[in-house]
Fold each of these.
Amino acid sequence: MPPELAPLTQPKLIDLGEIQVILLDVYGTLVISGSGDVGTADDAKHDAANRWIRDAATEAGVQDLTGIPTSDQLRNQIVATNEAARSEANPKPEVDILEIWRRVLQANGREDLATNPKILAAWICGVEGRSNPVWPMPGAHDALMAMQAKGRRLGIVSNAQFYTPLIVQNLIAKRSQDTKRGESSDSVERTIAGDLSSVFDLNACHFSYRYRAAKPGPLLFERAISQLRGTGILPEQVLYIGNDMLNDVWAAKQFGLQTALFAGDGRSLRLRTEDARCEKCLPDMVLTHWDQIVECL
């Protein structure tokens, strides 16, 4: 690592006495991710991805595998959807992966699967679990509990899909569980919302798939800051924590937030040295373990 980047991997702590709200990224920050980010079948190698799609289909209760999506079909649909949505106002579009799968299934003549939310949600979760397994970040659960106990309002601003809140729910509960096969994606999300509210302010939780816009584009942070201003919170009273210098630190700084780079997982740490936007961008804090933030509250 170049010497000038060494400070981004060493702890840098500040007093957080003036911070009222702490917003968090998910992948690479609250959880360790196999790919380092939110992933779908299109991120995996071709043969493995198609095998995962078939295996997850069977596990979800799909008996006839005729016309099921291939990884190429899903990838192409994602690319086409994002390109159609890209604009100056939304430079980094996001898809809703449920809608992507529905479109491909309908094109393949499998309307029966495209309109079966119970099977579809379980199927997609099965593929995601195979292609991008996640584990709780060491110390994250206890840090969340400590931040909440210290009276900080907690929220999430993250690139995500419908299954991401379930991952956070599992982190809160300190256990792993799969999406229940008998529940639709909508009912799963309602259950998740109820559990998330025990730790997070749901009005301060913003997931990219809901807005069809991802970080480092501005929309997620625009919505987050707008909601917080409505409750009397100023940007300088907000700390944003994430593992990506571009998507998290640079993007949050555009809106005047205090920032912390989470450098506790080398595999998912994204310094973005090749991006000019990050050349003179420095986080206010650097965390190499979640225990460190507890010291600053």
Note: Strands lie at 21-24, 31-33, 134-136, 153-158, 205-207, 238-242, 258-262, 285-287.
Amino acid sequence: MLVCLKRGFGLFLFFTHEGRALMCNFEISFFFCKFDISVSIYLRMPRQARKQSVTAIYHVILRGMDKMSLFYDDNDRKLFLKQLKSQVCPDFEIYCYCLMTNHIHLLVKSNLLSHYMHHIAFVYAMWFNAKYHRKGYLFQDRFRSEGIETENYLIQCFRYILQNPVKAGICRQVSDYRWSSYRLYYNSSASFVNVGFIKNFFSDRIQFEKYLLERNQTSFLEYLSERQMRDERLREMLKALLRGRDIHTLAKDEQKMILRQMLRETDVELRQLARISGVSIGIIRYLNE
């Protein structure tokens, strides 16, 4: 990425990707100063295209560089939410969010996902670096995303995102965590989050709360951290069960028996087992049911 300053506060950025050019103009406020920024994105070098969702709904994760904290205080979190809110429009809807310490979960609907996510990340990183007098990248690589193709997967992913602070040991209940969209769904106040979609799944708040207490059995896009440390141990277990054979050459019944044994005897995530074994996530999910 090449960054050039041009008279006053005009800023031109050149990114490489697919040989196309994009232009956008926006304004950033740092403390008491306003910066008018013009951004040129020059797209040249090919990158692997994101898989498009038929529904245009995605589970998105933004990660801090080298697991660094994205928020040092509540004002940082408020600023990020303000920036998120500023992007909401018919082309970019927010269904759910959860701000963790070093990563962010979003459930969004958009046919222009990359455009809006890059803008959100860029503006927040500029503000964050100015506030804390730092330089360099704030976010790790590109944002990660996974398409949501069914209503069942949508509502389970919704629960997974809201349960993240509980799973991480930050709080005991979903309702205890301040920095998720949980409090917005049965609140009369206006919100930038699209809360209406949950009416398709719950007749009242009692059903909603009950559902959030249930444990998720499905694997979702995750923030990669501790599970990477377990890969070597799991590979060794799989190798021992295979006894020198290739899992793809086994009879289907034996293949299923080995995978079910790993699911039963370990706390392996479904997506992790798919990655290690080379078996599709769809088959792994089926075996886990």
Note: Residues 1-46, 224-229 have pLDDT under 50 and may be disordered.
